[in-house]
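User: Hi! I'm working on a homework problem where we have to compare a predicted structure to a textbook description. Could you give me the structure for the chain below?
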Amino acid sequence: MTFAQQAGLAIHNAFMYQELKTFSQQMEEKIQRTTADLRKTEAQLIRSEKLAALGQLAAGIAHEIRNPLTSINILIHSLREKPSDEEHHREDLRVIEEEIRRINEIVDQFLRFAKPAPPLLQEADVLSLFEETLQLLKPQIEKQRISVQKEFQILPRRFSTVNR
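Assistant: Happy to help. Predicted structure tokens:
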């Protein structure tokens, strides 16, 4: 009788072990599927964030290009409308050339960003880098009504990376 009880308990334990093993495998499969789904969702989120950043970059570039184009358009219109004043025309043409150079520089910066070259270290004035960065961010700062207070201390020149 004792042997039969022990055998019955062993068989019951074997069935329970098999059920536990099956349950464990099912849970492991669910965890793997959930992990795969999580990784897929994470990749989609990263891609979405990159696209959002690219959209913001494109908007910033469009804004930066539109400013000199507006100046060029106004100057060309004024050249057409004004009586021939050679000195004034020369000054307007100089401004047009400068604005075109500015557009080319913006496009060059964008292309360097899109296809970065190996970094080149060169000494840089940190304060001027801050000023340039603030100038670049100025449209977003004004749009979001952010107040910027600058209190720079004299800093030593540092090496920074510059794309060629």
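For your comparison, note the following. Residues 71 and 77 are 10 Å apart (CA to CA). Strands lie at 120-124, 158-162. Good luck with the assignment!
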